[in-house]
UniProtKB/TrEMBL annotation, chain A:
<dbReference type="InterPro" id="IPR037207">
    <property type="entry name" value="Nuop51_4Fe4S-bd_sf"/>
</dbReference>
<keyword id="KW-0411">Iron-sulfur</keyword>
<dbReference type="InterPro" id="IPR001949">
    <property type="entry name" value="NADH-UbQ_OxRdtase_51kDa_CS"/>
</dbReference>
<dbReference type="GO" id="GO:0051539">
    <property type="term" value="F:4 iron, 4 sulfur cluster binding"/>
</dbReference>
<dbReference type="GO" id="GO:0010181">
    <property type="term" value="F:FMN binding"/>
</dbReference>
<dbReference type="Pfam" id="PF10531">
    <property type="entry name" value="SLBB"/>
</dbReference>
<dbReference type="Pfam" id="PF01512">
    <property type="entry name" value="Complex1_51K"/>
</dbReference>
<keyword id="KW-0004">4Fe-4S</keyword>
<dbReference type="InterPro" id="IPR019554">
    <property type="entry name" value="Soluble_ligand-bd"/>
</dbReference>
<keyword id="KW-0408">Iron</keyword>
<dbReference type="Pfam" id="PF01257">
    <property type="entry name" value="2Fe-2S_thioredx"/>
</dbReference>
<dbReference type="InterPro" id="IPR019575">
    <property type="entry name" value="Nuop51_4Fe4S-bd"/>
</dbReference>
<dbReference type="GO" id="GO:0008137">
    <property type="term" value="F:NADH dehydrogenase (ubiquinone) activity"/>
</dbReference>
<keyword id="KW-0479">Metal-binding</keyword>
<dbReference type="InterPro" id="IPR036249">
    <property type="entry name" value="Thioredoxin-like_sf"/>
</dbReference>
<feature type="domain" description="NADH-ubiquinone oxidoreductase 51kDa subunit iron-sulphur binding">
    <location>
        <begin position="447"/>
        <end position="492"/>
    </location>
</feature>
<dbReference type="InterPro" id="IPR037225">
    <property type="entry name" value="Nuo51_FMN-bd_sf"/>
</dbReference>
Length: 539, 243
């Protein structure tokens, strides 16, 4: 198949909807569904009936502003979110009003302006289709230009060409570590061996993070396309998507996408009439956070107990069943199709010197606009929180933002003007992580925050290595005493000692980074710990 | 995991461990070279003849030019490597780790059948643990005496998984495994059946011999009487892999 043939197919799929002029797009991602989007969709379908043939009610993926859900956008067929009329907090009773407004004047009482900074300041690459196409529709993805990058890679590029573009793009792993994706791919490509594997890590487990879920629920084909391009580049023919079972909707949409892509010849044998074959299988995680660690994840896929093993050897050398394995996270794969389409240099022109492209963040906690955003690397934290996020609600003041989940740390007001990228966050004692941002206001106690994350690490420690297994337990004990104002100054000193030991000696990333929430809150909010000490004033 | 097969044309490298010039095959790990040359490196999970586990983290060493510490049991030697095995910092970490192990379960040496022959006890002494700074968990654990020859006391287990590995890799029975997470982990026989009811256990007793503490012992032993003999393991392991 050539790009022209694919373009013909896309035109054909578009023509099927030629009679449609307007679309009523209902967000059917998990967060809007949890506030009743499915009922809204039903009501809209019923109210429309067979009338209004030029109007189509369509379930779409995440539009970002989850706190205002259920969201419904009325748009001309080709329009994006900015060019549509967006309604917030829609109830099933509003269906008739919304349908009545199509092509006429908007329903002002439900209106949610799309020119507000939350939408206007974003730049969408990973989420370019999210909220616009129907995630369950293969035709919709192809009509939006989907699978063109795969066909382009297979028909016009050698694997080395693909590697060159990915390396030139400067893309770094979006799972948290920020390892250069091009380097990882090249390493796997250079490894000898007939059998190689590609793994998509969709075991998103950080509290407050839901970027990968949104991508899988809104645009699953994009992830498959990225994986197929990766497999072509490194010489793999088999892939696994390791997705947590707590994401049933994402799993369902992935399964659907895999089935349809297979039927259309974009997965399976001889993809797009080339010699390239590629199979994808879904593996469900059973609720262990540590299985997001790559060696534990691979053990889990192999059917073993999900616990990490020492590295090296790295997965690129000896991964799944001892074969060279490429493992990237959902967002990394979602960036691949645009990079192949637009070129690595285009991607490298976005972002900062060492962190290219955009990053999806999940805003949660004490912030006006809870939801999902995508901004260029290098956007300042202040822009993200105060402008895009709309600041702190209820007239409270900002205290800290937690990034990087249980491996990250808290950033205080003084550092809000720091441009966000992998390296700047590291200098602040936290990390990019997968993109969760939890905003805290003046009412949050930082000792409580540290205790919460330590409890998380303690219950999620697999138990294999002693420092993590026993250290998280002991550190949690001291933090618990601190929150109850029962800890002494000696306890605090011991806590700092334990942080050092656990960080330096643990086997995997979970243990090595478990002390980070404590260390970073001690660094910026030591006063709060001091105030909690037993028998000392201020408690 | 089987022991790595020695590829042909293996090279010999030279390295420095604690300022001592040494040579080693490049497929050897730091701990193997140290044991060969009588350089003491503490470990509770590593055992010559079993696969590498990397769980106790007592064998952490410093390597010049590397920011992170490395586990001697799972790090191969390289040409020109400079290793320090016993710096002040490492000693402090080891001591803390052993203290936390003592506090995790209920280790009471004076009434233990392995008193005087226990690797955890010896480790405590060699790491200079004269008291335990962290609070004891004091969670009671069960004792399984259902096997006619052996006994399992979870109160004395340090989850090194030597029993799991020897049973799987040497005896080939895979009776032992680990269940649970974090500090709730427990070694189990079959699918958490009483040991005496295990259908896979061959009663070979290898697990008892390799257990570093008094967690796995022979029935009928009293305080201090359980002496273990591990010299069979490297011999047996080499015979297995020679085949």
């Amino acid at each position: 198949m050539h790009l022209e043939e694919l373009a013909e197919k896309a035109a054909e799929f578009k023509a099927e909807d030629a009679h449609v002029e307007h679309e009523v797009r209902v967000c059917m991602a998990a967060s809007c569904q949890s506030s009743g989007a499915a009922q809204v969709m039903d009501a809209l379908d019923k109210a429309k009936g067979d009338g209004q043939p030029a109007c189509k009610v369509k379930g779409v993926g995440c539009m970002g502003l989850c706190s205002a859900g259920p969201l419904v956008a009325v748009a001309d067929k080709e329009a994006d979110l900015a060019g549509s009329v967006l309604y917030r907090d829609v109830a099933p009773e509003d269906a008739a009003d919304i349908l009545g407004s199509v092509g006429g004047s908007p329903v002002e009482r439900l209106r949610c302006p799309t020119d507000q900074p939350f939408f206007a300041r974003q730049r969408k690459i990973v989420l370019e289709n999210s909220g616009i196409i129907d995630p369950n529709s293969f035709k919709g993805y192809v009509a939006a230009g989907g699978y063109a990058s795969l066909v382009q890679a297979l028909s016009e590029m050698t694997p080395a060409d693909v590697l060159r573009e990915i390396t030139a793009s400067g893309l770094r792993g979006r799972g948290g570590g920020g390892y250069p994706t091009g380097l990882k791919w090249s390493t796997v490509a250079k490894m000898p061996g007939e059998q190689k594997y590609v793994i998509c890590n969709a075991d998103e487990g950080d509290p407050g993070a839901f970027m990968d879920r949104a991508v899988l629920e809104s645009d699953p084909h994009r992830v498959l396309e990225g994986m197929a391009i990766a497999a072509y580049a490194v010489g793999a023919s088999k892939a696994y998507i390791y997705v947590r079972a707590e994401y049933p909707l994402a799993v369902e949409r992935l399964q659907n996408a895999i089935r349809k892509a297979k039927r259309a010849g974009f997965l399976g044998n001889k993809i797009a009439d080339t010699q390239f074959s590629f199979e994808v299988e879904i593996r469900l995680g059973a609720g262990a956070f540590v299985c997001g660690e790559e060696t534990a994840l691979m053990a889990s896929i192999e059917g073993l107990r999900g616990q990490p093993r020492p590295r090296p050897p790295y997965p690129a050398e000896s991964g799944l069943w001892g074969c060279p394995t490429l493992i990237n996270n959902v967002e990394s794969f979602a960036n691949i199709a645009p990079i192949v389409r637009e070129g690595g240099d285009w991607f490298a022109s976005i972002g900062t010197e060492k962190s290219k492209g955009t990053k999806v963040f999940a805003l949660a906690g004490k912030i006006a606009n809870t939801g999902l955003i995508e901004v260029p690397m290098g956007t300042t934290l202040r822009d993200i929180i105060e402008v895009i996020g709309g600041g702190i609600p209820d007239g409270k003041t900002f205290k800290a933002v937690q990034t990087g989940g249980p491996s990250g740390g808290c950033i205080p007001e003084a550092h809000l003007d720091m441009p966000v990228d992998y390296d700047s966050l590291k200098t602040l004692g936290t990390m990019m992580g997968s993109g969760g941002m939890i905003v805290m206001d003046e009412t949050s106690s930082m000792v409580d925050v540290a205790r919460y994350f330590m409890e998380f690490c303690m219950t999620e420690s697999c138990g294999k290595c002693v420092p993590c297994r026993t250290g998280t337990y002991q550190m949690h004990g001291i933090l618990d005493k601190l929150t109850k104002s029962q800890a002494s100054r000696d306890d605090l000193a011991l806590l700092e000692d334990l942080c050092e030991v656990v960080q330096a000696t643990s086997l995997c990333g979970l243990g090595q980074t478990a002390p980070n929430p404590v260390l970073s809150t001690l660094r910026y909010f030591r006063q709060e710990y001091e105030e909690k000490l037993q028998g000392e004033t201020g408690a | 995991m089987p022991l790595p097969v020695t590829p042909p044309n293996i090279r010999v490298v030279t390295l420095k461990i604690d300022d001592q010039d040494l040579s080693a095959r490049e497929d050897e790990t730091i701990i193997e070279v140290c044991r060969e040359n009588a350089i003491p490196i503490p470990s509770l999970c590593y055992l010559d003849g079993l696969s590498v586990w990397g769980g106790c983290r007592l064998c952490m060493v410093e390597i010049a030019g590397q920011g992170r510490l490395a586990a001697a049991c799972s790090t191969r030697v390289t040409e020109g490597m400079e290793v320090r095995t016993s710096t002040e910092r490492l000693q402090r970490y080891r001591r803390t780790i052993v203290e936390m192990l003592f506090a995790e379960r209920n280790h009471v040496c004076s009434v233990c059948v392995s008193n005087g022959h226990c690797e955890l006890q010896t480790m405590g002494q060699s790491c200079g643990v004269d008291h335990v700074r962290v609070p004891y968990r004091q969670t009671p654990y069960p004792v399984d005496s259902s096997h006619e020859m052996f006994r399992l006391d979870h109160n004395r287990c340090i989850l090194c998984t030597r029993c799991v590995r020897v049973c799987d890799e040497i005896e080939g029975a895979h009776t032992w495994d680990v269940m649970g997470r974090g500090s709730d982990c427990r070694v189990i026989t079959d699918l958490a059946l009483p040991w005496g009811e295990s259908e896979t256990c061959t009663s070979c007793g290898k697990c008892v011999q390799v257990c570093p503490t008094g967690a796995l012992v022979k029935q009928g032993t009293s305080a201090g009487e359980m002496v273990k003999d591990q010299h069979f393991l490297p011999i047996l392991a080499r015979r297995r892999h020679a085949r």
